[in-house]
Amino acid sequence: MQVLPWLILLLPLFAAVGIALGALPAHRRGVAARLSVGAAGLAFLLSVLLWSSGTQGEQGFLWLAAGALKVEFGWRLDALSVPMLLVVTGVGGLIQVYSLGYMRGDKGFGRYFAGLSLFTFAMEGIVLSTNLVQMFVFWELVGVSSYLLIGFWRERPAAADACKKAFLTNRVGDFGFFLGILLVWSLLGTVNFTEMSAVLQRQPEALGGLATLAGLLVFCGAVGKSAQFPLHVWLPDAMEGPTPVSALIHAATMVAAGVYMLCRVFFLLDAPGSVALEVIAWTGIFTALLAGVIAVQQDDIKRILAYSTLSQLGFMVLGV
């Protein structure tokens, strides 16, 4: 069972690379679709097998060493990551199947499925990450792949503007996330989730007077990715991409990544002396109410769905 998480993670990557390197001609587009959908389906089946086996734990190898900073690349299986892995692979696989008919005849058929596979790989990487640095790398890869998918029909000015808006808006939040990672590492001496939690259990005051700042900087990443106020403006425009892409981003994957990250680092947000959770709760409340009010004033079904998604995300953030 120890090899299953690696297979689940790498299958979409192999599909994306295979499609991209193959540069499949129009008459062989079906090969790209079968490769992508097959990888997604197999990843889901392996995720179900992993869940049914009850396997938990952590495994990795030294990936980056710079002075006192030691970063591993690996996977972490627990009661939080395994259900989310099922959601990512399951929903992603269904969307890929739906895309077979929706994108049939499009000249960018192969490029589309390569982007979907890359996106799935990045989302699985976030879910399985063992530390903040690994999560941040996959976090950025999700941003890149979503940029490519939202702007898939880049010849349309609205789609080109929407993908740039999504990319730049998320980078604002990610800059805060990056600063938060640096601050947490400087205070705790590690970026590994298990080790950070252990340090705070032994030394509850390890973050000192910077506990709130550390929590809010990390929260900045979720503000961008989960489209919370004031970085919510990109999500409605993301509907300019193909409908399956909108489903992938809005339904249960990309925008849920921010909420997942908050759950993963909850021990940081709830550190002694920190009021980060209160700020996060009020941000979620305001986003939910604001998006709900805007949604009832829309007459375009896609924008109604986008703002209703924003509202539900606000409640999810409040629930953290």
Features:
two-stranded antiparallel ribbon, 320 residues, single chain
Could you walk me through the main structural features you see in this protein, from its secondary elements to its overall organization?
- This protein is mainly alpha-helical and 320 residues long.
- The chain is 71% helix and 6% strand.
- It is built from 14 helices and two strands.
- The protein has helices spanning 4-22, 29-53, 81-102, 109-128, 132-150, 157-188, 193-202, 211-225, 234-237, 243-250, 254-264, 266-269, 276-295, 301-319; strands spanning 57-66, 69-77.
- The chain has a two-stranded antiparallel ribbon.
- A hairpin with a 2-residue loop joins β1 (57-66) and β2 (69-77).
- α13 packs antiparallel against α14 (301-319).
- The two termini are 31 Å apart.
- The mean pLDDT is 90.
SSE topology:
Elements lengths: L3 H19 L6 H25 L3 E10 L2 E9 L3 H22 L6 H20 L3 H19 L6 H32 L4 H10 L8 H15 L8 H4 L5 H8 L3 H11 L1 H4 L6 H20 L5 H19 L1
Antiparallel strand pairs: 1-2
Helix pairs in contact: 1-2, 1-4, 2-3, 2-4, 3-4, 3-10, 4-5, 5-6, 6-8, 8-11, 8-13, 13-14
